[in-house]
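Many introductory courses stop at the sequence. We go one step further.
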Amino acid sequence: MKSMCLAAILAALMGSAAAAETIGVSMQSFDNNFQTLLREGIGARAAEVKGVNVQVEDAQTDISKQLNQVNNFIAAGVDAIIMTLTDTSAAPGISEAAEKAGIPLVYLNLEPDNIAKLPQKQAYVGSKETDSGELGAQAACSLLKEKGKASDAQVYILMGDLAHQASRDRTSSFKDALAASDCKGITIADEQSGAWTRTNAMDLTTNWITAGQPIDVVFANNDEMAIGAIQALKAASVSMDDVIIIGIDATQDGLAAMAAGDLDATVFQNAKGQSASAVDAAVALVRGEAIEKQVWVPFELVTPKNMADYASRN
């Protein structure tokens, strides 16, 4: 599907006369760094669009809490809802409730299970998760070839929350891309869910180190878990020159780890682009304007060679 032209849509929205509109926003977790970037981006875009207010709630990774927030938004009569799902399988029920209430709904960042069957006045804004895994695999294979380990490396994967399609897609596409590359001889030694968090990733990596098997690559589904792996490796006095670490998101913490020589590559996920597109889509739906049902914001590979270009983009 076509990506939305942010500048053109923003100009149209800012120039349209309309009564004040309230958008209810339910975020998966305020504690997640990337979700925080999305939340800040939503607030920034709403401030740019005339007559739009946002009411933001923290679901704290609790689907019951998030469902209550959605029900409260509907009862309060908000004009639209934007949400990052705590459990993507809950989307069909949420879509049905919003449709019955006649309230436009925009899923953001975490792909809903019903993406192919979204009702009218509903859309998804995000990035194609399989692209991020493929880019991560390309970076990992290139670095393994430089080290002469393209045929016998031991690769470990830190997955996100298994309730999220993003975690499953990032992992499967990473493995598929490696299997189709010059690094098809590598071994996926283990893959475990770190649920997107630095602490969980540190614990899992510590377990892998304790098991005594070689660790040549750690592919983390996000930068937070990549940093957790780095912390565990350093605590065990493992040289970072011996392990390739790949993350996703290109957060400020991730870029700082790259500048320190610890993170070898990450994949930029455009939080500002996603959140701005979500606000634009929600407002357009409220105002009866046609939009794409799926709005894609591209991923981009970040390495030490081009990291300066991304210093202020998230």
